[in-house]
Design goal:
With 313 residues, the protein is an alpha/beta fold. The protein is built from 12 helices and 15 strands. The strands form 4 sheets. The protein has a 6-stranded mixed beta sheet with strand order 7-8-9-10-11-12, sandwiched between helices. It has a 4-stranded mixed beta sheet with strand order 2-1-5-6. The longest helix has 16 residues. It is globular and about 55 Å long.
């Protein structure tokens, strides 16, 4: 979607200048990956309008393959407005009747999965419309061979108001890799505890429970849960950090990294986004990443990333 953020300080009702950028969970993940050395593609629908043309162009400029994007001649591109702040950012969506909400299961037959190693979905898409729900179900139920299907729960209460949250649990159960925040897991499954979630969600091989500023826990196969604390960060704005974590974790997973490195790569990419008002922040310098990925527990725990991108040890 097109995303508008304040371009000047002050209460949002007094802000007169807004910066138009782009946003959206799946497109955020797709835009992070090329900067991490992983080719990606993004499939969605936009309107035949200036916002649609702008966001497709900008997503492509991040190195993302946008050849699968559908241009809807009748429906508009969705947009949302974000009121930025380090303590939280209220978001106002204007997406009813959008082009993306018109997608349906017929899209599956038009997709080419040749060479694709991971298909990343989120719980936002099935909330947009009945046809979008049917699309996500079709993608999760198709034969996948070696393809890994990743599902980020991404529960948005406003989108699911009056709807059955067991649908999210059903969809997550069909994936190979599930990412969820402990707060949203509490709403969907009644618990944010990783061990209890593993019992309630036995199907996916990989489960990642994000626990906010505390860290994240990986439960994979029969291995014991592994917790990796998050880095301390001077937060500029928090929205988009979960998508950044997903991208960092997925990129490291595709490279066959060990479990701790995968979690730390997720935290490092999330930290880069926490240091910016944008939904997609540039990765931290590679020398910083290399140092922190190899750091012992004490050094990792004592590190703080400042708003200037400097390390404070």
């Amino acid at each position: 979607m097109a995303l508008f953020v304040p371009a000047e300080p002050g209460p949002p009702d007094e802000v007169r200048t807004w910066l138009r950028t782009i946003g959206g969970a799946e497109s955020n993940v797709a835009c992070h990956l090329p900067a991490l050395g992983v080719p990606s593609g993004w499939v969605s629908a936009v309107g035949d309008d200036p916002f649609g043309r702008a966001l497709v162009r900008e997503i492509a400029s991040a190195g993302v393959d946008v050849s699968g994007v559908v241009v809807d001649p009748a429906r508009p591109t969705g947009l949302y407005v974000k009121e930025s702040g380090a303590g939280g950012s209220p978001v106002r969506y204007y997406r009813a009747g959008s082009a993306a909400s018109g997608l349906g299961p017929e899209l599956v037959s038009q997709l080419d999965f040749t060479g694709v190693r991971v298909l990343h979905l989120s719980g936002i898409t099935p909330a947009l419309s009945d046809s979008c729900l049917a699309l996500v179900r079709a993608l999760l139920q198709r034969p996948r061979g070696d393809l890994i299907v990743s599902f980020d729960v991404n529960h948005r209460p406003a989108l699911w108001a009056g709807r059955d949250l067991s649908v999210l649990a059903e969809l997550a159960g069909l994936a190979d890799l599930v990412l969820t925040g402990d707060d949203e897991a509490e709403r969907v499954w009644g618990t944010g505890d990783p061990a209890r979630l593993r019992e309630l969600l036995p199907g996916p091989r990989t489960l990642v429970v994000k626990q906010g500023e505390r860290g994240a826990t990986l439960v994979e196969g029969d291995a014991e849960p592994l917790f990796a604390p998050a880095l301390k960060v001077d937060v500029v704005e928090p929205v988009g950090a979960g998508d950044a974590f997903a991208a960092g974790f997925l990129a490291a997973t595709l490279r066959g990294a060990d479990p701790l490195t995968r979690l730390r790569r997720g935290h490092l990419q999330a930290a880069a986004t926490l240091l910016t008002q944008d939904d997609v922040g540039a990765p931290l310098p590679e020398d910083v990443i290399a140092t922190l990925v190899r750091a012992d527990a004490g050094s990792w725990g004592s590190t703080r990333l400042t708003a200037e991108g400097e390390l404070a040890l």
